[in-house]
Each structure stands twice: as structure tokens, then as C-alpha cells.
Amino acid sequence: MRSASLKVYVSLLISLGLGSVSFATRAETILRLGTDIMPPYLFESPDQSLRGDAKHTLDCVFEQLPGYHFQTAIAPWPRVVRLAHRGDIDGWFLYVQNASSDDFAVLSDPLLLESWYWYSLDDVSDATLEDLRDETVLVMNGTYQAIWLQSQGFSDFFSVGSTDSLIRAFLAGRARHLLVSETVFNEAVARLNGELSAINQRFVGFIPLGLYITKAFSREHPGFIGDFNTAATGCRIEQVGLTAENEQSLANLVEPLSRWLASDWVREPVLLANARNQHLPPDEISRIDRQWVDEVRTGDFDLIAEVLSRDLSTRLALIRRQSQGVFSELFITDIHGITLGTSNITSDWFQGDEGPFDAIVTRREPVQIDAIAYDESTRQFLSQIALPIRDTNGDLIGMLVAGVNVENALRGLQ
């Protein structure tokens, strides 16, 4: 299959006229996919084969889709999208969701998660998008950054045709502003030996990139996109690195959380629960946990309603609402891992077999901040902060877990 794929890739690169070529065979469906070179996600190796994270991720997904294979055409982004719109190819990757593409194609779940930064030769630490809207911004022709900027009301662009040209133009001062993936920027600057001392950067947000499949192909293969999304979950590459400044912003959330945990409204119900639950048999804990899970599934709340009605839950829900979207959930457990209060309905009642409990109670870590993960159900980038609850003597008595919406916590360029 690899030799055939390379042969088709070379012919498509030369011709870019795909409508007359049929790739169907008796036993498989071969998708004709377009893309553009974007190191390190996609680049040509010395033997002219395609390499990079995007190619690796697609290979991983299609290995789990028997009966489907893909072959790739390389062209500038505007031409790739036009080819898909005409029906000359079946889809394209990696791309950000946008309204014009949604008219004739369906975007998969994310294949790769990018962190976008605004790079500037000026100080933009206190700037808003409104402040920058009249500035000239460097973009690469037809890229998702250009599409996003247009959707935000920007119109003055200095356009170039490749990643290297983009970075060279910015380092040369052809325009004072650049919006690009942090991974792409760092890779290109390192390769071009660029000087970074005079460059300022500002976090914009996390952006999911996926595979667009034309609606025509989806009609012919109605189960494909669902199967593709299922396979993509285990193949996704998460490029969501944070600067040291942004990591500190997340760590700064620990201090106000710790203040609340020293309050009597936290300590008193936790101490009472520890005494009440210390002799609860494991079988009974399992039974109650199953009841909670069943209530989540059926929506018939009894135990859940009782926990949500507690003063502890009411206060946690108020903190979540007042956090302006920073906290997605907060819950408190006793020393045994039993949920005592929660701002939201958790998936489980017993937390003693979860990672945060292991870190805080078993290993006695002072704090745990989880890696950033993309949640398909909410389409948000989330982390978790777990903290110990201590009595007035400093002894460990329980745990708080706070779900954090990372984009809201970092307050990217708005």
C-alpha cells in the first residue's frame, strides 16, 4: 500500500487534476485528501514522501478503519478547498472549523490540538482584539489563521505563500503582528536561526484541527465519519503546550482555593463525614456508588438530590457560578474518597479509586494539576486541580477537586 500511495501522491502533486482518476477497488475505498505543507505537522522528506504529525495521526486512524485508505494531494490551501468544493477530492486536513467549509463538508473530531499565540514586535500584554483590528497582520494564504482573523473583523493582511516566508517576513519587520501556532512558530524560528529577544507573545486560545470530509462522500459512506471519530480518540496528538507564564496562571488558582478550604463550612462537614464513614464496609461503598451511577444514567435522582441539597454543595455551586467560567466543577470528598458536596453531578460517588485521590490522600502530594485535555462532550480544554483539606492541626482530612476551563483561566486575547 505504501508504494502505491507514494505513486499516487507524486502524480497528484504534478497534476492536481483529480476528477478523472478513480481510486476505488473491489475491496477498499480510497479517500482522495488534500493538504498543504505545514512543518512540523506535514513536510516532505528527502525521498519526497510525506512525514509529520498529521500524516502519522491519519495513518494511525486509518489502520483502524478496514476497507478505507487515503492518498494525498499537496496544494496551497485555497486550491485544496476549491478542489473539495468541486468534488475533485473527498476531503482535506488539518483544518479549523469555519462556516464556508461547513456548507459542503463535515469536520471530524479533533486530530490535533494547537495552541495559538499572537506574536508582535510591540507590547501587546494589555491589548484587545479591538485595539489590533486596524493593524497589518502577517498571514499565510488561505490558512485557518487567516480565516479566523477575517471572522474577527480583520482585513489588512500581508500574505505570503509558505511557513518559512511567514517567519522570515515577521523577523524582518515586514509586518509587526503575526498569528500562528506556537509549535509551527518555534519550529520555523529554530530552523531559520531567528532572533527572539524583541518578540512579544500573547496567548490567544486552543484550536482543534480536524479532517473535513465532503458531504457528498458522507452521503455515499454514512458510517465513515462516526467510525473515523471513534478511531481518532486514541490517535490524537495534543499540541497544547503552555508558556511558563501561563503555567503560573493556572498555579495561581491554588491560593484562593486553599483559602476556602480553611473555612469552617468546609472543615466541619468533612470531619463529621470522616467519623460517620470510617466503618463503612467496602461492599456498602460499592453499592452506594452503583446507585449514584444508575441515577446519573436514568435521571431519577434520590441520592444525588440529597447531596446537591447540602450546604456544602450550594456553596461550591456559588463559587463555580462566580468564577466567570474558570471552574467547570468543584467537589469535596472526605478522607475515604466519598463525595460530600459538589457543584455539578459527578459521574461517580466514590472518588477513592481516582487519580486525584491517589495523589493527594495516598501519596500526600501538596497539590496536583493535571495535564490539559480536550473534552469531546463539552468541546472544551480542561484541567483539574486537586488540593488537600486539613484540620486546624494541619492533619489531612479530605480533598477538593476543581475542574478548570483552561482557556477561561488564561483569559486569552479577546
What does this protein structure show overall?
By secondary structure, the protein is α/β, with parallel strands linked by helices. The protein is 39% helix and 25% strand. The chain has helices at residues 2-15, 53-62, 77-86, 99-102, 129-132, 144-151, 163-171, 182-192, 215-220, 224-232, 244-251, 254-261, 264-277, 282-298, 303-308, 311-322, 355-362, 406-410; strands at 29-35, 43-44, 50-51, 68-74, 91-95, 105-107, 112-120, 137-140, 157-160, 177-181, 200-214, 237-238, 327-334, 339-342, 368-369, 373-375, 380-390, 396-405. The strands form three sheets. Strands 1, 4, 5, 6, 7, 8, 9, 10, 11 and 12 form a ten-stranded mixed beta sheet that branches. A hairpin with a 4-residue loop joins strand 16 (373-375) and strand 17 (380-390).
The Rg value, from CA coordinates, equals 25 Å
Low-confidence stretches: 1-26
Q: Count the helices. How many?
A: 18
Beta-strand share of residues: 15-25%
Distance between the termini: 46 Å
Helix content: 25-40%
Report the biggest beta sheet as strand number plus sense, adding barrel if it closes.
10 strands, mixed
Average pLDDT number: 87
Number of separate strands: 18
Q: Helix/strand/pairing class, anyone?
A: alpha/beta
